[in-house]
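Inverse folding, one chain.
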Protein backbone atom coordinates (compact mmCIF):
# COMPACT_ATOMS: atom_id res chain seq x y z
CA UNK A 1 0.00 0.00 0.00
CA UNK A 2 1.32 3.46 -0.88
CA UNK A 3 2.50 5.46 2.12
CA UNK A 4 0.31 8.43 2.88
CA UNK A 5 1.56 11.34 4.88
CA UNK A 6 -1.45 12.50 6.81
CA UNK A 7 -1.66 16.23 7.35
CA UNK A 8 -4.26 18.98 7.56
CA UNK A 9 -6.13 19.47 4.27
CA UNK A 10 -4.84 22.33 2.10
CA UNK A 11 -5.80 25.70 3.51
CA UNK A 12 -6.88 24.27 6.86
CA UNK A 13 -4.95 24.40 10.10
CA UNK A 14 -4.74 23.05 13.62
CA UNK A 15 -5.05 25.52 16.46
CA UNK A 16 -2.46 24.26 18.93
CA UNK A 17 -2.45 25.13 22.66
CA UNK A 18 0.07 27.95 22.15
CA UNK A 19 -2.48 29.69 19.89
CA UNK A 20 -5.53 28.75 21.94
CA UNK A 21 -4.49 31.35 24.53
CA UNK A 22 -5.12 34.08 21.92
CA UNK A 23 -8.37 32.51 20.75
CA UNK A 24 -9.45 32.37 24.41
CA UNK A 25 -8.66 36.05 24.76
CA UNK A 26 -10.87 36.77 21.74
CA UNK A 27 -13.72 34.60 23.08
CA UNK A 28 -13.58 36.10 26.58
CA UNK A 29 -13.46 39.65 25.20
CA UNK A 30 -16.36 39.22 22.78
CA UNK A 31 -18.52 37.43 25.34
CA UNK A 32 -18.14 40.35 27.71
CA UNK A 33 -18.73 42.92 24.97
CA UNK A 34 -21.83 41.23 23.53
CA UNK A 35 -23.27 40.82 27.02
CA UNK A 36 -22.79 44.54 27.59
CA UNK A 37 -24.34 45.51 24.23
CA UNK A 38 -27.39 43.29 24.90
CA UNK A 39 -26.80 40.55 22.32
CA UNK A 40 -27.84 36.92 22.79
CA UNK A 41 -25.83 33.99 21.48
CA UNK A 42 -26.97 31.80 18.61
CA UNK A 43 -25.47 28.66 17.07
CA UNK A 44 -26.61 27.44 13.68
CA UNK A 45 -25.56 24.20 11.95
CA UNK A 46 -22.27 24.03 10.07
CA UNK A 47 -24.22 22.60 7.12
CA UNK A 48 -27.11 24.40 5.45
CA UNK A 49 -29.12 23.91 2.30
CA UNK A 50 -26.73 25.14 -0.43
CA UNK A 51 -29.51 27.19 -1.99
CA UNK A 52 -29.71 29.36 1.13
CA UNK A 53 -26.33 30.76 0.15
CA UNK A 54 -26.72 30.85 -3.63
CA UNK A 55 -29.95 32.81 -3.28
CA UNK A 56 -28.78 35.23 -0.62
CA UNK A 57 -25.11 35.81 -1.39
CA UNK A 58 -25.90 35.76 -5.12
CA UNK A 59 -25.22 33.32 -7.95
CA UNK A 60 -22.55 35.46 -9.61
CA UNK A 61 -20.35 35.99 -6.61
CA UNK A 62 -16.96 34.41 -5.94
CA UNK A 63 -18.27 32.58 -2.88
CA UNK A 64 -21.11 30.87 -4.73
CA UNK A 65 -19.36 30.46 -8.08
CA UNK A 66 -16.09 29.04 -6.81
CA UNK A 67 -15.74 28.74 -3.08
CA UNK A 68 -18.55 26.67 -1.59
CA UNK A 69 -17.93 23.14 -0.31
CA UNK A 70 -21.05 21.29 -1.35
CA UNK A 71 -21.85 17.73 -0.43
CA UNK A 72 -24.72 15.46 -1.27
CA UNK A 73 -26.23 13.16 1.32
CA UNK A 74 -26.11 9.40 0.63
CA UNK A 75 -29.63 9.39 -0.78
CA UNK A 76 -28.42 12.20 -3.05
CA UNK A 77 -31.46 14.37 -2.45
CA UNK A 78 -30.07 17.31 -0.47
CA UNK A 79 -27.25 19.54 -1.60
CA UNK A 80 -25.77 20.79 1.65
CA UNK A 81 -23.06 23.42 1.88
CA UNK A 82 -20.44 23.95 4.57
CA UNK A 83 -21.41 27.45 5.66
CA UNK A 84 -19.23 30.11 3.99
CA UNK A 85 -20.64 32.91 6.18
CA UNK A 86 -22.95 33.51 9.12
CA UNK A 87 -25.57 36.07 8.13
CA UNK A 88 -27.80 34.01 5.81
CA UNK A 89 -28.07 31.12 8.34
CA UNK A 90 -29.03 33.58 11.08
CA UNK A 91 -31.70 35.19 8.91
CA UNK A 92 -32.91 31.66 8.09
CA UNK A 93 -33.11 30.86 11.82
CA UNK A 94 -34.86 34.18 12.56
CA UNK A 95 -37.54 33.46 9.95
CA UNK A 96 -37.83 29.75 10.76
CA UNK A 97 -38.43 30.38 14.47
CA UNK A 98 -40.69 33.41 14.04
CA UNK A 99 -38.33 35.74 15.90
CA UNK A 100 -40.11 38.61 14.11
CA UNK A 101 -43.02 38.13 16.53
CA UNK A 102 -40.86 39.26 19.49
CA UNK A 103 -40.08 42.91 20.24
CA UNK A 104 -37.61 44.15 17.62
CA UNK A 105 -34.73 44.39 17.03
CA UNK A 106 -33.40 40.91 17.74
CA UNK A 107 -29.69 41.10 18.54
CA UNK A 108 -27.70 37.91 18.05
CA UNK A 109 -24.00 37.00 18.14
CA UNK A 110 -21.99 33.91 17.22
CA UNK A 111 -18.59 32.47 16.64
CA UNK A 112 -17.42 29.36 14.86
CA UNK A 113 -15.72 27.85 11.81
CA UNK A 114 -16.54 28.90 8.24
CA UNK A 115 -15.45 27.38 4.95
CA UNK A 116 -14.46 28.86 1.60
CA UNK A 117 -12.49 27.06 -1.09
CA UNK A 118 -10.18 30.02 -1.68
CA UNK A 119 -6.58 30.05 -2.88
CA UNK A 120 -4.65 29.63 0.38
CA UNK A 121 -2.21 32.45 1.19
CA UNK A 122 -1.04 34.39 4.23
CA UNK A 123 -4.12 35.24 6.30
CA UNK A 124 -6.47 33.35 3.97
CA UNK A 125 -7.65 29.85 4.86
CA UNK A 126 -10.24 27.39 3.63
CA UNK A 127 -11.48 26.79 7.14
CA UNK A 128 -11.29 29.96 9.21
CA UNK A 129 -12.94 31.22 12.38
CA UNK A 130 -15.19 34.21 12.65
CA UNK A 131 -17.18 35.96 15.31
CA UNK A 132 -20.02 38.16 14.27
CA UNK A 133 -23.30 39.72 15.25
CA UNK A 134 -26.57 40.79 13.67
CA UNK A 135 -29.25 43.33 14.57
CA UNK A 136 -32.43 42.08 12.89
CA UNK A 137 -35.59 44.14 12.46
CA UNK A 138 -34.31 47.72 12.69
CA UNK A 139 -33.89 50.15 9.79
CA UNK A 140 -32.38 53.13 11.60
CA UNK A 141 -28.98 54.55 10.66
CA UNK A 142 -27.95 54.54 14.31
CA UNK A 143 -27.89 50.71 14.13
CA UNK A 144 -25.39 50.82 11.25
CA UNK A 145 -23.23 53.24 13.21
CA UNK A 146 -23.40 51.15 16.36
CA UNK A 147 -22.52 48.00 14.41
CA UNK A 148 -19.32 49.73 13.29
CA UNK A 149 -18.63 51.12 16.76
CA UNK A 150 -19.06 47.70 18.40
CA UNK A 151 -16.69 46.04 15.94
CA UNK A 152 -14.17 48.87 16.26
CA UNK A 153 -14.30 48.83 20.07
CA UNK A 154 -13.87 45.05 20.32
CA UNK A 155 -10.70 45.38 18.25
CA UNK A 156 -9.50 48.08 20.68
CA UNK A 157 -10.31 45.77 23.62
CA UNK A 158 -8.08 43.19 21.93
CA UNK A 159 -5.18 45.65 21.76
CA UNK A 160 -5.70 46.66 18.12
CA UNK A 161 -6.02 50.43 18.49
CA UNK A 162 -4.82 51.47 15.05
CA UNK A 163 -7.59 50.17 12.84
CA UNK A 164 -9.47 52.30 10.37
CA UNK A 165 -12.99 51.98 9.02
CA UNK A 166 -13.68 52.12 5.29
CA UNK A 167 -17.29 52.86 4.54
CA UNK A 168 -19.57 53.27 1.54
CA UNK A 169 -23.24 53.10 0.63
CA UNK A 170 -24.27 50.83 -2.20
CA UNK A 171 -27.80 52.23 -2.31
CA UNK A 172 -30.99 50.21 -2.33
CA UNK A 173 -33.40 48.70 -4.84
CA UNK A 174 -34.50 52.21 -5.87
CA UNK A 175 -31.18 53.65 -6.85
CA UNK A 176 -28.73 50.83 -7.46
CA UNK A 177 -30.26 50.06 -10.87
CA UNK A 178 -29.40 53.53 -12.19
CA UNK A 179 -25.83 53.17 -11.00
CA UNK A 180 -25.53 49.70 -12.50
CA UNK A 181 -26.65 51.09 -15.89
CA UNK A 182 -24.04 53.89 -15.73
CA UNK A 183 -21.37 51.43 -14.65
CA UNK A 184 -22.11 48.99 -17.49
CA UNK A 185 -22.01 51.87 -19.97
CA UNK A 186 -18.60 52.90 -18.65
CA UNK A 187 -17.26 49.32 -18.62
CA UNK A 188 -18.40 48.78 -22.21
CA UNK A 189 -16.73 51.99 -23.29
CA UNK A 190 -13.42 50.60 -21.96
CA UNK A 191 -13.95 46.99 -22.82
CA UNK A 192 -10.54 46.58 -24.43
CA UNK A 193 -8.77 47.77 -21.30
CA UNK A 194 -10.37 45.83 -18.46
CA UNK A 195 -9.24 42.27 -17.62
CA UNK A 196 -11.11 39.19 -18.87
CA UNK A 197 -12.77 38.58 -15.51
CA UNK A 198 -14.11 42.13 -15.44
CA UNK A 199 -15.55 41.77 -18.94
CA UNK A 200 -17.35 38.63 -17.84
CA UNK A 201 -18.58 40.39 -14.70
CA UNK A 202 -19.89 43.30 -16.79
CA UNK A 203 -22.51 40.87 -18.05
CA UNK A 204 -23.14 38.78 -14.93
CA UNK A 205 -22.66 41.10 -11.95
CA UNK A 206 -21.10 44.48 -12.87
CA UNK A 207 -20.69 45.65 -9.27
CA UNK A 208 -18.12 42.85 -8.81
CA UNK A 209 -15.77 44.77 -11.12
CA UNK A 210 -15.22 47.18 -8.24
CA UNK A 211 -13.71 44.26 -6.27
CA UNK A 212 -11.14 43.42 -8.96
CA UNK A 213 -7.64 43.22 -7.47
CA UNK A 214 -5.89 43.91 -10.82
CA UNK A 215 -4.00 47.22 -10.52
CA UNK A 216 -4.86 48.33 -14.07
CA UNK A 217 -8.59 47.68 -13.55
CA UNK A 218 -8.45 49.58 -10.25
CA UNK A 219 -6.84 52.55 -11.97
CA UNK A 220 -9.39 52.47 -14.78
CA UNK A 221 -12.22 52.39 -12.25
CA UNK A 222 -10.98 55.67 -10.76
CA UNK A 223 -12.43 57.39 -13.84
CA UNK A 224 -15.67 55.43 -13.60
CA UNK A 225 -19.00 56.49 -12.08
CA UNK A 226 -19.26 56.45 -8.28
CA UNK A 227 -22.33 55.02 -6.62
CA UNK A 228 -22.44 57.87 -4.15
CA UNK A 229 -23.51 60.21 -7.00
CA UNK A 230 -26.47 57.95 -7.80
CA UNK A 231 -27.92 57.47 -4.30
CA UNK A 232 -31.60 58.34 -3.85
CA UNK A 233 -32.55 60.93 -1.22
CA UNK A 234 -33.36 58.28 1.44
CA UNK A 235 -30.07 56.45 0.95
CA UNK A 236 -28.14 59.73 0.99
CA UNK A 237 -29.79 60.83 4.25
CA UNK A 238 -29.12 57.38 5.74
CA UNK A 239 -25.42 57.52 4.86
CA UNK A 240 -25.10 61.09 6.15
CA UNK A 241 -26.58 60.08 9.51
CA UNK A 242 -24.26 57.06 9.83
CA UNK A 243 -21.24 59.27 9.16
CA UNK A 244 -22.43 61.89 11.65
CA UNK A 245 -22.71 59.26 14.39
CA UNK A 246 -19.21 58.01 13.61
CA UNK A 247 -17.84 61.53 13.73
CA UNK A 248 -19.56 62.10 17.07
CA UNK A 249 -17.83 59.00 18.48
CA UNK A 250 -14.50 59.93 16.86
CA UNK A 251 -14.24 56.62 15.01
CA UNK A 252 -11.53 57.01 12.33
CA UNK A 253 -13.10 56.36 8.94
CA UNK A 254 -12.61 57.05 5.25
CA UNK A 255 -15.28 57.03 2.62
CA UNK A 256 -14.35 54.46 -0.02
CA UNK A 257 -16.56 54.98 -3.10
CA UNK A 258 -15.48 51.64 -4.58
CA UNK A 259 -16.16 49.42 -1.57
CA UNK A 260 -18.97 46.98 -2.47
CA UNK A 261 -18.02 43.71 -0.66
CA UNK A 262 -18.44 40.31 -2.21
CA UNK A 263 -22.04 39.51 -1.27
CA UNK A 264 -25.21 40.51 -3.08
CA UNK A 265 -27.49 40.86 -0.09
CA UNK A 266 -26.11 44.19 1.10
CA UNK A 267 -28.08 47.44 0.81
CA UNK A 268 -26.97 50.91 1.82
CA UNK A 269 -24.12 50.81 4.36
CA UNK A 270 -21.14 48.54 3.71
CA UNK A 271 -17.92 48.76 5.69
CA UNK A 272 -14.62 47.07 6.37
CA UNK A 273 -12.19 47.59 9.21
CA UNK A 274 -8.54 47.21 8.35
CA UNK A 275 -5.28 47.39 10.26
CA UNK A 276 -1.66 46.41 9.81
CA UNK A 277 -1.52 42.67 10.59
CA UNK A 278 2.00 41.27 10.14
CA UNK A 279 4.89 42.06 7.81
CA UNK A 280 3.97 39.05 5.70
CA UNK A 281 0.24 39.82 5.62
CA UNK A 282 0.60 43.61 5.41
CA UNK A 283 -2.55 45.62 6.05
CA UNK A 284 -5.46 43.25 6.30
CA UNK A 285 -9.21 43.46 6.51
CA UNK A 286 -10.01 42.25 10.01
CA UNK A 287 -13.77 42.70 9.87
CA UNK A 288 -16.54 43.66 7.53
CA UNK A 289 -20.26 44.07 7.45
CA UNK A 290 -23.19 46.16 6.43
CA UNK A 291 -26.93 46.53 6.10
CA UNK A 292 -29.01 43.89 4.37
CA UNK A 293 -32.61 45.07 4.19
CA UNK A 294 -33.63 42.78 1.33
CA UNK A 295 -32.08 39.49 2.43
CA UNK A 296 -35.28 38.17 4.00
CA UNK A 297 -37.21 39.01 0.81
CA UNK A 298 -34.74 36.96 -1.21
CA UNK A 299 -35.52 34.10 1.19
CA UNK A 300 -39.21 34.45 0.41
CA UNK A 301 -40.45 36.61 3.29
CA UNK A 302 -41.24 40.28 3.86
CA UNK A 303 -38.35 42.72 4.24
CA UNK A 304 -36.66 42.58 7.63
CA UNK A 305 -34.30 45.57 7.69
CA UNK A 306 -31.11 44.38 9.38
CA UNK A 307 -27.44 45.09 9.84
CA UNK A 308 -24.46 43.06 11.01
CA UNK A 309 -20.76 42.35 10.84
CA UNK A 310 -18.21 39.54 11.06
CA UNK A 311 -14.53 39.43 11.96
CA UNK A 312 -11.80 36.94 11.07
CA UNK A 313 -10.28 35.51 14.24
CA UNK A 314 -7.04 34.22 12.65
CA UNK A 315 -6.21 37.67 11.31
CA UNK A 316 -7.06 39.26 14.64
CA UNK A 317 -4.81 36.75 16.43
CA UNK A 318 -1.95 37.57 14.02
CA UNK A 319 -2.49 41.28 14.68
CA UNK A 320 -2.57 40.66 18.45
CA UNK A 321 0.71 38.74 18.32
CA UNK A 322 2.33 41.48 16.22
CA UNK A 323 1.32 43.96 18.94
CA UNK A 324 2.57 41.64 21.71
CA UNK A 325 -0.90 41.39 23.27
CA UNK A 326 -1.01 38.70 25.97
CA UNK A 327 -3.27 35.69 25.56
CA UNK A 328 -5.32 34.16 28.37
CA UNK A 329 -3.28 31.54 30.21
CA UNK A 330 -4.65 28.89 32.56
CA UNK A 331 -4.09 29.65 36.26
CA UNK A 332 -1.15 27.86 37.88
CA UNK A 333 -1.81 24.97 40.27
CA UNK A 334 -1.31 25.75 43.95
CA UNK A 335 -0.80 22.24 45.31
CA UNK A 336 1.19 19.23 44.09
CA UNK A 337 0.17 15.68 45.07
CA UNK A 338 2.99 13.24 45.41
CA UNK A 339 2.52 9.54 46.15
CA UNK A 340 4.65 6.47 46.77
CA UNK A 341 3.22 2.97 46.42
CA UNK A 342 0.01 1.48 44.98
CA UNK A 343 -2.26 2.19 47.96
CA UNK A 344 -0.99 5.79 48.13
CA UNK A 345 -1.79 6.17 44.42
CA UNK A 346 -5.44 5.30 45.08
CA UNK A 347 -5.59 7.76 47.97
CA UNK A 348 -3.79 10.30 45.79
CA UNK A 349 -6.60 10.13 43.25
CA UNK A 350 -9.13 10.67 46.04
CA UNK A 351 -7.18 13.62 47.47
CA UNK A 352 -7.00 15.19 44.00
CA UNK A 353 -10.82 15.09 43.77
CA UNK A 354 -11.17 16.48 47.33
CA UNK A 355 -9.07 19.48 46.32
CA UNK A 356 -11.13 19.95 43.15
CA UNK A 357 -14.34 19.99 45.20
CA UNK A 358 -12.78 22.63 47.46
CA UNK A 359 -11.88 24.75 44.39
CA UNK A 360 -8.12 24.43 44.99
CA UNK A 361 -6.19 23.95 41.74
CA UNK A 362 -3.85 20.98 42.13
CA UNK A 363 -1.63 18.91 39.91
CA UNK A 364 0.07 15.53 40.17
CA UNK A 365 2.51 13.19 38.62
CA UNK A 366 0.69 9.91 39.16
CA UNK A 367 2.71 8.13 36.51
CA UNK A 368 6.00 8.79 38.34
CA UNK A 369 6.93 6.61 41.33
CA UNK A 370 10.09 8.22 42.69
CA UNK A 371 9.54 10.86 45.34
CA UNK A 372 12.65 12.75 44.18
CA UNK A 373 11.33 13.02 40.61
CA UNK A 374 7.95 14.18 41.89
CA UNK A 375 9.40 16.85 44.19
CA UNK A 376 11.64 18.10 41.44
CA UNK A 377 8.59 18.44 39.18
CA UNK A 378 6.79 20.46 41.91
CA UNK A 379 9.86 22.68 42.15
CA UNK A 380 9.90 23.26 38.42
CA UNK A 381 6.24 24.27 38.55
CA UNK A 382 7.03 26.67 41.40
CA UNK A 383 4.51 25.01 43.71
CA UNK A 384 5.10 25.57 47.39
CA UNK A 385 2.64 23.13 48.93
CA UNK A 386 3.23 19.43 48.28
CA UNK A 387 1.04 16.73 49.72
CA UNK A 388 3.03 13.54 50.18
CA UNK A 389 1.35 10.24 50.76
CA UNK A 390 3.20 6.94 51.24
CA UNK A 391 2.11 3.43 52.23
CA UNK A 392 2.43 4.27 55.95
CA UNK A 393 0.27 7.40 55.67
CA UNK A 394 -2.24 5.73 53.36
CA UNK A 395 -2.90 2.95 55.91
CA UNK A 396 -3.67 5.52 58.62
CA UNK A 397 -5.64 8.01 56.43
CA UNK A 398 -2.93 10.61 56.96
CA UNK A 399 -0.97 12.85 54.57
CA UNK A 400 2.24 14.84 54.90
CA UNK A 401 2.08 18.49 53.91
CA UNK A 402 5.48 19.80 52.87
CA UNK A 403 6.42 23.45 52.58
CA UNK A 404 8.86 23.46 49.66
CA UNK A 405 10.43 26.75 50.65
CA UNK A 406 11.39 25.78 54.20
CA UNK A 407 11.40 22.00 53.69
CA UNK A 408 9.25 21.65 56.84
CA UNK A 409 6.78 18.74 56.87
CA UNK A 410 3.67 18.17 58.99
CA UNK A 411 1.39 15.17 59.21
CA UNK A 412 -2.38 15.78 59.10
CA UNK A 413 -5.45 13.59 58.82
CA UNK A 414 -6.96 13.42 55.29
CA UNK A 415 -10.16 14.94 56.68
CA UNK A 416 -8.25 18.00 57.89
CA UNK A 417 -6.19 18.33 54.73
CA UNK A 418 -8.37 20.81 52.80
CA UNK A 419 -8.69 23.07 55.87
CA UNK A 420 -4.92 23.02 56.41
CA UNK A 421 -4.16 23.71 52.72
CA UNK A 422 -6.60 26.62 52.70
CA UNK A 423 -4.95 28.06 55.81
CA UNK A 424 -1.52 27.86 54.17
CA UNK A 425 -2.76 29.39 50.91
CA UNK A 426 -3.95 32.49 52.79
P1 LIG B 1 -16.48 38.36 5.05
O1 LIG B 1 -17.48 37.37 5.54
O2 LIG B 1 -15.89 38.02 3.73
O3 LIG B 1 -16.94 39.75 5.18
O4 LIG B 1 -15.27 38.22 6.04
C1 LIG B 1 -15.22 38.82 7.31
C2 LIG B 1 -13.82 38.65 7.86
O5 LIG B 1 -13.50 37.26 7.96
C3 LIG B 1 -12.76 39.21 6.93
O6 LIG B 1 -12.57 40.56 7.17
C4 LIG B 1 -11.55 38.39 7.33
O7 LIG B 1 -10.94 38.92 8.49
C5 LIG B 1 -12.15 37.05 7.66
N1 LIG B 1 -12.03 36.12 6.51
C6 LIG B 1 -12.81 36.02 5.41
N2 LIG B 1 -12.39 35.05 4.60
C7 LIG B 1 -11.31 34.50 5.20
C8 LIG B 1 -10.42 33.44 4.88
N3 LIG B 1 -10.56 32.74 3.76
N4 LIG B 1 -9.41 33.15 5.74
C9 LIG B 1 -9.25 33.85 6.88
N5 LIG B 1 -10.06 34.84 7.26
C10 LIG B 1 -11.07 35.18 6.43
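Residues assigned per position:
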Amino acid sequence: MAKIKFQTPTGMHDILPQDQVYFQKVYKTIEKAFDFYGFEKIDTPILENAELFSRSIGMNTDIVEKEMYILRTKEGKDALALRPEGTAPIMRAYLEHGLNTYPQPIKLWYHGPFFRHEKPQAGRYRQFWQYGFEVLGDKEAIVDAQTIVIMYNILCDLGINDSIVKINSIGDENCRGEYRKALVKFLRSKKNEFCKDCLRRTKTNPLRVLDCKDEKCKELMNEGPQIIDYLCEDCKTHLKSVLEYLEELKIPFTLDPFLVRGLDYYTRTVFEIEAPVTEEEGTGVLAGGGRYDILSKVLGKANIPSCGAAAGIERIVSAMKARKVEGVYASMPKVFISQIGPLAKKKGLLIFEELRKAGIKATESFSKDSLKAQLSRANKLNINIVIIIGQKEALRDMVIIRDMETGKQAEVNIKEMVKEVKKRLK
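The chain is about 40% helix and 20% strand. Residues 56 and 265 are 6 Å apart (CA to CA).
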